[in-house]
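Technical note accompanying the year-one report. For the benefit of new consortium partners, we illustrate the data format agreed upon in the data management plan: each record pairs a sequence with a structure-token string. No post-processing was applied to the example shown here.
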Amino acid sequence: MKIKLDLEKCQGHGRCYSLAPELFDSDDLGNAVVLVTGELDADQIVQATLAANNCPEYAIEVVA
């Protein structure tokens, strides 16, 4: 599983990097940046799913 981020949808609310700081950070404008680009381990999948479920713009997906 990997993280897919749609930067066009991201509005910089910061929920992803607040909920999963090991997986996400923010750029200079406050928009999300994915820190882990490879395959996620089981704990990271849980964190990424939490971030995706709390993104108001649905900009994050956890994909195979």
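Partners are asked to follow this layout when depositing records. The first strand starts at residue 2 and ends at 5.
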